[in-house]
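Sanity check

After download, print the first record. It should look like this:
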Amino acid sequence: MKIQHPLFRNVPGLIWRRAAMLAGLAIVVLHCAAAGAARPDSVGPVTISVSNLERSIDFYTKVLDFRLLAKEQQSGATLDRLQGRSGVSRQVARLQLGTEIIELAAYQTPRGRPYPESRSNDRWFQHLAIVVRDMDQAYLRLQAAHVQAASAGGPQTLPLSNPAAAGIRAFYFRDPDNHYLEIIYFPAGKGDPRWQEPGPLFAGIDHTAIVVSDSERSAAFYTGVLGLNRAGGSENIGPEQERLNNVVGAHLRISTYRSPSGPGIEFLQYLEPRDGRPTPADLTPSDLASWQTIVQLEGDPEKIFGAIQAAGGKVLSAGLVQDSASPSNSELLVQDPDGHGLLLHIKRR
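Expected C-alpha coordinates:
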Protein backbone atom coordinates (compact mmCIF):
# COMPACT_ATOMS: atom_id res chain seq x y z
CA MET A 1 0.00 0.00 0.00
CA LYS A 2 1.27 3.44 -0.91
CA ILE A 3 0.93 5.84 2.02
CA GLN A 4 0.93 9.50 1.08
CA HIS A 5 2.25 11.96 3.65
CA PRO A 6 -0.34 14.70 4.40
CA LEU A 7 2.23 17.31 3.39
CA PHE A 8 2.16 16.06 -0.21
CA ARG A 9 -1.57 15.61 -0.72
CA ASN A 10 -3.04 17.67 -3.53
CA VAL A 11 0.45 18.72 -4.69
CA PRO A 12 -0.68 19.93 -8.16
CA GLY A 13 -3.29 22.16 -6.54
CA LEU A 14 -0.75 23.52 -4.11
CA ILE A 15 1.71 24.25 -6.91
CA TRP A 16 -0.87 26.13 -8.95
CA ARG A 17 -2.06 28.13 -5.93
CA ARG A 18 1.53 28.93 -5.01
CA ALA A 19 2.32 30.03 -8.55
CA ALA A 20 -0.76 32.24 -8.62
CA MET A 21 0.19 33.78 -5.27
CA LEU A 22 3.76 34.47 -6.42
CA ALA A 23 2.45 36.04 -9.62
CA GLY A 24 0.18 38.24 -7.53
CA LEU A 25 3.08 39.28 -5.32
CA ALA A 26 5.16 40.11 -8.39
CA ILE A 27 2.36 42.39 -9.57
CA VAL A 28 2.29 44.07 -6.13
CA VAL A 29 6.05 44.65 -6.25
CA LEU A 30 5.86 46.08 -9.77
CA HIS A 31 2.93 48.27 -8.76
CA CYS A 32 4.87 49.58 -5.76
CA ALA A 33 7.91 50.30 -7.89
CA ALA A 34 5.82 52.12 -10.45
CA ALA A 35 4.10 54.05 -7.66
CA GLY A 36 7.42 55.41 -6.48
CA ALA A 37 8.39 52.94 -3.76
CA ALA A 38 10.66 54.37 -1.11
CA ARG A 39 14.40 54.39 -0.71
CA PRO A 40 15.29 53.48 2.89
CA ASP A 41 17.83 55.47 4.89
CA SER A 42 17.78 53.57 8.19
CA VAL A 43 15.88 51.26 10.50
CA GLY A 44 15.37 52.18 14.14
CA PRO A 45 14.76 53.04 16.84
CA VAL A 46 12.34 50.27 17.79
CA THR A 47 9.60 51.43 20.17
CA ILE A 48 8.20 49.03 22.79
CA SER A 49 5.03 49.75 24.75
CA VAL A 50 5.55 49.21 28.49
CA SER A 51 3.32 49.41 31.56
CA ASN A 52 5.78 50.99 34.02
CA LEU A 53 8.45 53.21 32.50
CA GLU A 54 10.76 53.43 35.50
CA ARG A 55 10.69 49.67 36.04
CA SER A 56 11.54 49.06 32.38
CA ILE A 57 14.33 51.65 32.40
CA ASP A 58 15.77 49.96 35.47
CA PHE A 59 15.69 46.56 33.76
CA TYR A 60 17.23 47.61 30.46
CA THR A 61 19.94 49.77 32.01
CA LYS A 62 20.95 47.58 34.98
CA VAL A 63 20.57 44.09 33.49
CA LEU A 64 21.37 44.71 29.81
CA ASP A 65 23.63 47.80 30.08
CA PHE A 66 21.55 50.15 27.95
CA ARG A 67 22.22 53.84 28.60
CA LEU A 68 19.37 56.26 29.26
CA LEU A 69 19.57 59.21 26.86
CA ALA A 70 16.39 61.17 27.55
CA LYS A 71 12.79 61.08 28.75
CA GLU A 72 9.93 63.20 27.47
CA GLN A 73 6.18 63.57 27.80
CA GLN A 74 4.28 63.41 24.52
CA SER A 75 0.69 64.42 23.72
CA GLY A 76 -1.28 66.73 21.42
CA ALA A 77 -3.12 66.83 18.12
CA THR A 78 -0.18 65.68 16.00
CA LEU A 79 0.33 62.54 18.08
CA ASP A 80 -3.42 61.87 18.01
CA ARG A 81 -3.47 62.07 14.20
CA LEU A 82 -0.36 59.93 13.92
CA GLN A 83 -1.87 57.14 16.01
CA GLY A 84 -5.40 57.56 14.67
CA ARG A 85 -6.85 58.04 18.17
CA SER A 86 -7.82 60.92 20.42
CA GLY A 87 -6.41 61.91 23.79
CA VAL A 88 -3.09 60.08 23.45
CA SER A 89 -0.66 60.82 26.26
CA ARG A 90 2.54 58.91 26.85
CA GLN A 91 6.00 59.18 28.37
CA VAL A 92 8.87 57.99 26.22
CA ALA A 93 12.42 57.07 27.21
CA ARG A 94 15.24 56.74 24.67
CA LEU A 95 17.95 54.21 25.49
CA GLN A 96 21.14 53.33 23.67
CA LEU A 97 23.22 50.16 23.41
CA GLY A 98 26.27 50.35 21.19
CA THR A 99 25.18 52.44 18.21
CA GLU A 100 21.53 51.32 18.36
CA ILE A 101 18.65 53.12 20.11
CA ILE A 102 15.32 51.85 21.40
CA GLU A 103 12.34 53.69 22.85
CA LEU A 104 10.18 52.62 25.77
CA ALA A 105 6.68 54.16 25.66
CA ALA A 106 4.36 54.16 28.69
CA TYR A 107 0.83 55.29 27.81
CA GLN A 108 -1.18 57.19 30.37
CA THR A 109 -4.16 57.45 27.99
CA PRO A 110 -5.55 55.39 26.48
CA ARG A 111 -4.30 52.56 28.66
CA GLY A 112 -3.28 49.42 26.80
CA ARG A 113 -3.93 45.75 27.41
CA PRO A 114 -1.25 43.57 29.06
CA TYR A 115 0.94 41.28 27.02
CA PRO A 116 -1.11 38.14 26.27
CA GLU A 117 -0.16 34.57 27.06
CA SER A 118 1.70 33.53 23.95
CA ARG A 119 4.21 31.28 22.25
CA SER A 120 7.09 32.18 19.97
CA ASN A 121 5.11 31.25 16.84
CA ASP A 122 2.17 33.59 17.49
CA ARG A 123 2.25 36.28 14.82
CA TRP A 124 2.38 39.22 17.22
CA PHE A 125 5.78 37.89 18.31
CA GLN A 126 8.64 40.37 17.99
CA HIS A 127 11.98 40.53 19.73
CA LEU A 128 15.26 42.42 19.85
CA ALA A 129 18.40 40.39 19.17
CA ILE A 130 20.97 41.81 21.60
CA VAL A 131 24.52 40.88 20.65
CA VAL A 132 26.83 39.66 23.43
CA ARG A 133 30.57 39.09 23.25
CA ASP A 134 30.55 36.24 25.79
CA MET A 135 27.40 34.12 25.95
CA ASP A 136 28.27 32.35 29.18
CA GLN A 137 28.89 35.60 31.04
CA ALA A 138 25.74 37.19 29.63
CA TYR A 139 23.64 34.18 30.63
CA LEU A 140 25.06 34.32 34.16
CA ARG A 141 24.06 38.00 34.29
CA LEU A 142 20.46 37.11 33.35
CA GLN A 143 20.35 34.31 35.92
CA ALA A 144 21.66 36.59 38.66
CA ALA A 145 18.85 39.05 37.84
CA HIS A 146 16.27 36.21 37.97
CA VAL A 147 15.16 36.99 34.44
CA GLN A 148 12.28 34.89 33.13
CA ALA A 149 13.52 32.38 30.53
CA ALA A 150 11.58 31.93 27.31
CA SER A 151 13.81 29.22 25.78
CA ALA A 152 13.55 25.65 27.01
CA GLY A 153 16.93 25.24 28.65
CA GLY A 154 19.98 27.46 28.51
CA PRO A 155 21.69 29.02 25.49
CA GLN A 156 21.50 26.92 22.33
CA THR A 157 24.28 26.48 19.76
CA LEU A 158 23.05 26.10 16.20
CA PRO A 159 24.54 22.99 14.57
CA LEU A 160 27.06 22.55 11.74
CA SER A 161 24.27 21.05 9.64
CA ASN A 162 23.01 24.63 9.20
CA PRO A 163 25.98 26.33 7.43
CA ALA A 164 24.41 29.79 7.42
CA ALA A 165 23.98 29.81 11.21
CA ALA A 166 26.44 27.18 12.46
CA GLY A 167 28.06 28.12 15.75
CA ILE A 168 25.71 30.99 16.55
CA ARG A 169 24.53 30.81 20.15
CA ALA A 170 21.24 32.29 21.31
CA PHE A 171 18.80 32.42 24.21
CA TYR A 172 15.28 33.84 24.54
CA PHE A 173 14.06 35.57 27.70
CA ARG A 174 11.41 38.09 28.83
CA ASP A 175 11.47 41.66 30.09
CA PRO A 176 9.22 42.79 33.00
CA ASP A 177 6.20 43.14 30.66
CA ASN A 178 6.78 39.70 29.08
CA HIS A 179 8.17 41.06 25.81
CA TYR A 180 10.51 38.57 24.15
CA LEU A 181 14.20 39.44 23.96
CA GLU A 182 17.17 37.46 22.70
CA ILE A 183 20.86 37.45 23.50
CA ILE A 184 22.90 36.25 20.55
CA TYR A 185 26.58 35.44 20.09
CA PHE A 186 28.21 35.42 16.65
CA PRO A 187 31.38 33.34 16.21
CA ALA A 188 34.16 34.50 13.88
CA GLY A 189 32.95 34.74 10.31
CA LYS A 190 29.28 35.20 11.24
CA GLY A 191 27.31 38.43 11.53
CA ASP A 192 28.59 41.98 11.27
CA PRO A 193 32.40 42.14 11.73
CA ARG A 194 31.95 44.78 14.44
CA TRP A 195 30.52 42.09 16.73
CA GLN A 196 34.03 40.55 16.79
CA GLU A 197 35.66 43.75 18.00
CA PRO A 198 36.63 44.01 21.69
CA GLY A 199 34.26 45.96 23.87
CA PRO A 200 31.54 45.72 26.53
CA LEU A 201 29.69 42.46 27.22
CA PHE A 202 26.46 43.74 25.62
CA ALA A 203 27.52 45.08 22.24
CA GLY A 204 24.42 46.34 20.44
CA ILE A 205 21.31 45.22 18.54
CA ASP A 206 21.74 43.11 15.42
CA HIS A 207 18.10 42.87 14.36
CA THR A 208 14.48 42.79 15.39
CA ALA A 209 12.69 39.53 14.53
CA ILE A 210 9.01 39.20 13.61
CA VAL A 211 6.86 36.15 12.97
CA VAL A 212 5.31 36.22 9.50
CA SER A 213 2.71 33.96 7.95
CA ASP A 214 4.19 34.11 4.44
CA SER A 215 7.74 35.19 3.64
CA GLU A 216 7.00 36.11 0.01
CA ARG A 217 4.08 38.33 0.96
CA SER A 218 6.15 40.06 3.65
CA ALA A 219 9.06 40.46 1.22
CA ALA A 220 6.72 42.18 -1.25
CA PHE A 221 5.85 44.67 1.48
CA TYR A 222 9.31 45.28 2.95
CA THR A 223 11.17 45.38 -0.39
CA GLY A 224 8.48 46.61 -2.77
CA VAL A 225 7.13 49.34 -0.49
CA LEU A 226 9.91 50.15 1.98
CA GLY A 227 12.84 49.32 -0.28
CA LEU A 228 14.76 47.11 2.16
CA ASN A 229 17.24 44.60 0.71
CA ARG A 230 17.45 40.90 1.47
CA ALA A 231 20.65 40.23 3.41
CA GLY A 232 20.53 36.48 3.98
CA GLY A 233 18.52 33.62 5.33
CA SER A 234 18.42 30.01 6.43
CA GLU A 235 16.08 27.13 7.14
CA ASN A 236 16.31 26.06 10.78
CA ILE A 237 15.10 22.75 12.17
CA GLY A 238 16.17 20.38 14.90
CA PRO A 239 16.29 20.04 18.69
CA GLU A 240 18.38 23.17 19.19
CA GLN A 241 15.81 25.29 17.39
CA GLU A 242 12.95 23.64 19.30
CA ARG A 243 14.61 24.49 22.61
CA LEU A 244 15.54 28.02 21.54
CA ASN A 245 12.00 28.91 20.45
CA ASN A 246 10.36 26.62 23.03
CA VAL A 247 8.07 25.31 20.29
CA VAL A 248 7.89 21.55 19.74
CA GLY A 249 8.66 20.61 16.13
CA ALA A 250 9.86 24.13 15.24
CA HIS A 251 10.86 24.34 11.58
CA LEU A 252 11.54 27.89 10.48
CA ARG A 253 12.30 29.71 7.28
CA ILE A 254 14.37 32.75 8.30
CA SER A 255 15.00 35.75 6.05
CA THR A 256 16.81 38.96 6.97
CA TYR A 257 16.25 42.37 5.38
CA ARG A 258 18.30 45.52 5.91
CA SER A 259 18.53 49.19 5.06
CA PRO A 260 21.83 51.11 4.70
CA SER A 261 22.04 51.54 8.48
CA GLY A 262 20.43 50.33 11.67
CA PRO A 263 19.38 46.85 12.79
CA GLY A 264 17.96 44.32 10.36
CA ILE A 265 14.39 43.06 10.24
CA GLU A 266 14.27 39.28 10.39
CA PHE A 267 11.28 37.22 9.21
CA LEU A 268 10.49 34.04 11.14
CA GLN A 269 8.08 31.91 9.11
CA TYR A 270 7.05 28.73 10.90
CA LEU A 271 6.78 25.96 8.34
CA GLU A 272 5.89 23.75 11.31
CA PRO A 273 3.92 23.90 13.52
CA ARG A 274 1.33 26.06 11.80
CA ASP A 275 -0.84 26.74 14.83
CA GLY A 276 0.50 30.22 15.61
CA ARG A 277 -2.33 32.68 16.26
CA PRO A 278 -2.81 35.83 14.14
CA THR A 279 -2.26 39.31 15.53
CA PRO A 280 -5.53 40.63 17.02
CA ALA A 281 -7.26 42.89 14.52
CA ASP A 282 -7.95 45.44 17.26
CA LEU A 283 -4.33 45.72 18.48
CA THR A 284 -3.62 49.36 19.40
CA PRO A 285 -0.28 51.16 19.86
CA SER A 286 -0.75 51.28 23.64
CA ASP A 287 -1.29 47.51 23.97
CA LEU A 288 1.85 45.88 25.36
CA ALA A 289 2.00 43.45 22.43
CA SER A 290 2.45 46.46 20.14
CA TRP A 291 5.89 47.37 18.85
CA GLN A 292 6.72 50.11 16.38
CA THR A 293 9.82 49.78 14.23
CA ILE A 294 10.79 53.21 12.94
CA VAL A 295 11.94 53.33 9.31
CA GLN A 296 13.46 56.44 7.76
CA LEU A 297 12.56 56.67 4.06
CA GLU A 298 12.93 58.91 1.04
CA GLY A 299 10.14 59.03 -1.53
CA ASP A 300 6.77 60.44 -2.45
CA PRO A 301 4.57 60.22 0.70
CA GLU A 302 1.28 60.01 -1.24
CA LYS A 303 2.55 57.20 -3.46
CA ILE A 304 3.99 55.31 -0.49
CA PHE A 305 0.61 55.65 1.25
CA GLY A 306 -1.11 53.94 -1.68
CA ALA A 307 1.60 51.29 -2.04
CA ILE A 308 1.18 50.23 1.61
CA GLN A 309 -2.44 49.29 1.11
CA ALA A 310 -1.78 47.64 -2.27
CA ALA A 311 0.76 45.34 -0.58
CA GLY A 312 -1.61 44.24 2.20
CA GLY A 313 -0.59 46.71 4.89
CA LYS A 314 -2.90 48.82 7.04
CA VAL A 315 -2.67 52.54 7.75
CA LEU A 316 -3.43 53.46 11.38
CA SER A 317 -2.80 57.20 11.12
CA ALA A 318 -5.53 59.68 10.17
CA GLY A 319 -3.83 60.29 6.83
CA LEU A 320 -0.31 61.55 6.23
CA VAL A 321 0.89 63.61 9.20
CA GLN A 322 3.10 66.60 8.50
CA ASP A 323 6.45 66.59 10.23
CA SER A 324 6.45 69.74 12.39
CA ALA A 325 10.24 70.04 12.12
CA SER A 326 10.19 69.80 8.31
CA PRO A 327 6.77 70.51 6.75
CA SER A 328 7.66 68.93 3.39
CA ASN A 329 8.16 65.57 5.13
CA SER A 330 5.53 63.21 6.51
CA GLU A 331 5.00 60.54 9.16
CA LEU A 332 2.73 57.54 8.98
CA LEU A 333 1.92 54.75 11.45
CA VAL A 334 1.12 51.50 9.66
CA GLN A 335 0.90 47.75 10.19
CA ASP A 336 2.53 45.23 7.88
CA PRO A 337 0.47 42.32 6.45
CA ASP A 338 0.82 40.39 9.74
CA GLY A 339 -0.03 43.33 12.02
CA HIS A 340 3.48 44.40 13.08
CA GLY A 341 3.72 48.15 13.70
CA LEU A 342 5.96 50.45 11.65
CA LEU A 343 6.38 54.19 12.08
CA LEU A 344 7.51 55.67 8.77
CA HIS A 345 9.41 58.96 8.61
CA ILE A 346 9.17 59.93 4.94
CA LYS A 347 11.48 62.55 3.48
CA ARG A 348 10.08 63.87 0.22
CA ARG A 349 12.49 63.59 -2.69
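If your output differs, re-run the checksum step. Summary of this record's structure: DSSP finds seven helices and 17 strands in the chain.
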